[in-house]
Write a structure and sequence with these properties.
Family: Belongs to the glycosyltransferase 25 family.
Order of helices and strands: HEEEHEHEEHEEEEEHHHEEEEEHEEE
Keywords: Glycosyltransferase, Transferase
Organism: Penicillium vulpinum
Strand content: 15-25%
Distance between the termini: 57 Å
Number of domains: 1
Radius of gyration: 22 Å
CATH topology: Spore Coat Polysaccharide Biosynthesis Protein SpsA, Chain A
Shape: globular
CATH architecture: Alpha-Beta Complex
Largest sheet: 12 strands, mixed
Structural class: alpha+beta
GO molecular function: transferase activity
Helix content: 25-40%
Protein name: LPS glycosyltransferase
Number of helices: 8
Length: 379
């Protein structure tokens, strides 16, 4: 074969190979019961190694903590060490540390001073993301709890949000295992709603989802899509139109810039369009809903919260809780890291469930598995 002919054949094979790969990376679509289902067959299911690192696939993890609550810092430091991820710290803010001149002009002074101080602490975290030029970061509050399988949960979640992003861009993620086109990943919340005209994703048979009787009272009705009902063991991931409770979320650099503009800097009267002078989580939910931010969230929430034993007043640094002594408890997670710290330190193989009516009461963390899900298009 002549040299030129050989080069032509080689070039033809390369073109054919690239075309085949691009074809395989597209979601395959088939008709099912309404809404339409699209089975995701994108980048390899194992292409999420960065989530298994010490920062869960983002550049840094921050926890907000008041200097006066070293007990809560102890919880996060020990729990994260046992889950093999590293946390940096953002100092919480007290009302006495906030100069009245620093309040945004549209802040609703009907809210508690402690609520603005909490909002300021989150803004400080976002300021740090922008100042340090972090591509992405997780910000959590210091009473968070998470499942012992959080890295597996986040791999499954990343699989879903990447698939949803590719519905719009058809671009393979390059910067983040969670994709490149998001502002907020609202991983821990106490209620959320979805944009019902956008596709959503369902992951079936997730063993880390609490049964509905263990959901705390939520501040939003469960998300619904016409013609489809979420099964008890399925996790829904969608483009969020609202959420409340900012206990655990990821933010991109672009998202941190936009939130800092909307909730503090307010260029060109932006606050009138975006912010209502509310608590941080309420304002964040609003700007997810009006399209200023692109937000994704799971339902039920992936992360939950932990309450130490003692007076009920220990549970909140914002609200004046009253009540008698309470024991340790966790909410929102089936296999709580905080409730299993003693078992993990002892080297026991199994983790005990938060409640006694789950399908598997004692589980070996390595035996927890997640199934692939599918995209559904609303009617």
């Amino acid at each position: 074969m002549a040299f030129s002919q050989l080069r032509f054949v080689q070039l033809l094979l390369v073109v054919f190979g690239v075309a085949f790969i691009l074809f395989k990376l597209r979601p395959t679509t088939h008709r099912g019961t309404a809404p339409t289902q699209q089975v995701w067959s994108g980048p390899n299911w194992d292409d999420f190694d960065a989530i298994r690192n010490e920062t869960l696939g983002v550049q840094k993890i921050f926890a907000i903590n008041l200097i006066s609550r070293p007990d809560k810092r102890d919880n996060i430091v020990l729990g994260s060490s046992l889950s093999n991820f590293h946390v940096d710290w953002i100092d919480g803010v007290t009302p006495d540390e906030v100069d009245a001149k620093s309040y945004p002009y549209n802040w609703n002074h009907g809210h508690k001073r402690t609520e603005y101080a909490a909002r300021r602490a989150h803004i400080n975290g976002l300021q740090r993301v922008v100042q340090e030029r972090l591509a992405s970061a997780i910000i959590m509050e210091d009473d968070a709890d998470w499942d012992v399988s959080i890295k597996l949960q986040l791999e499954s979640f990343a699989h879903a949000v990447r698939a949803l992003q590719l519905q719009d861009t058809q671009k393979i993620p390059t910067e983040s295992p969670y994709g490149d086109d998001w502002d907020i990943l609202w991983l821990g919340h106490c209620g959320m709603s979805c944009k019902t005209d956008f596709p959503f994703y369902l992951t079936p048979n997730d063993p880390t989802i609490p049964m509905p009787q263990h959901f705390l009272p939520l501040w939003r009705d469960p998300p619904t899509f016409e013609g489809h009902e979420r099964a008890n063991h399925s996790r829904l991931i969608c483009t969020a139109s609202d959420a409340v409770c900012s206990m655990f979320y990821a933010v991109s650099y672009r998202g941190a810039q936009r939130i800092l503009a909307a909730l503090s800097v307010n260029p060109s009267g932006l606050a009138e369009e975006i912010d209502i002078g509310a608590q941080f989580d309420v304002s964040l939910g609003r700007i997810c809903g009006n399209g200023y931010l692109r937000c994704f969230a799971p339902y039920p929430s992936i992360t939950g919260g932990f309450h130490q034993a003692g007076p009920r007043a220990k549970s909140s640094d914002i609200h004046d809780e009253v009540g008698e002594e309470e024991g340790f408890f966790s909410w929102g997670v089936v296999y709580s890291t905080m409730l299993n710290i003693n078992r993990i330190l002892k080297g026991e193989l199994t983790i005990h469930a938060t409640w006694d009516d789950v399908d598997v009461l004692d589980v070996i963390p390595g035996d927890i598995t997640m199934e692939k899900g599918a995209i559904y298009s609303p009617k």
